[in-house]
Amino acid sequence: xxxxxxxxxxxxxxxxxxxxxxxxxxxxxxxxxxxxxxxxxxxxxxxxxxxxxxxxxxxxxxxxxxxxxxxxxxxxxxxxxxxxxxxxxxxxxxxxxxxxxxxxxxxxxxxxxxxxxxxxxxxxxxxxxxxxxxxxxxxxxxxxxxxxxxxxxxxxxxxxxxxxxxxxxxxxxxxxxxxxxxxxxxxxxxxxxxxxxxxxxxxxxxxxxxxxxxxxxxxxxxxxxxxxxxxxxxxxxxxxxxxxxxx
Length: 247
Ligand SMILES: [Zn+2]
What we know:
It is a single chain. This protein is of the alpha/beta class. It is built from eight helices and eight strands, in the order ββαβαβαβαβαβαααβ. Helix 1 runs parallel beside helix 2 and helix 2 (76-94) packs antiparallel against helix 6. It is globular. The two termini are 20 Å apart.
């Protein structure tokens, strides 16, 4: 079959890796376009890695300020600070201390992509950071995840890592709003699941630490973003689905 799509709908058919496999990953970097992607996509993996005492760093690319663009109570800088505080709380729950968290503060929805004039300087910034933390495995959003910042995150890290690290991709919006062209093809990646049942509760608590996204905390912006229970249901399983380039 040409362009055959990977079947992610039937989870039972996706191979399941035991929790212990995380020890093979070495030092890990989690790259999240927005505060919350780390917990939604990789919360279980992070908690397991920390349980086995492996180093985990978290890099947040955007400032997250477009989640509630019209709030009077939370103007831009205050919203940014709130989201960063929420991220640190989530990281803490998963076992990652503040020192291992980095914020690049690119404007929300404008994380530099390959067509941006500032792409090369953004790649250089990422390269600097990657060199500093020397991660052996890097988690990034699925390359065609249907959100511009998620695709940009993949492009930036792919360019900066120069194949020096193992790259594992995690889907976020692919579960919700993907068009068929966004779907992974069998000829490009393989899918596998990680058993996170041992740390399921931690992942859920970490997600809920992002209160500005999961509750009415910011109640004065009718256009405010909300991780609804329907969306959260995509991340409520005791496994996490990952994609990885065919080797
Ligand atoms: Zn995101």
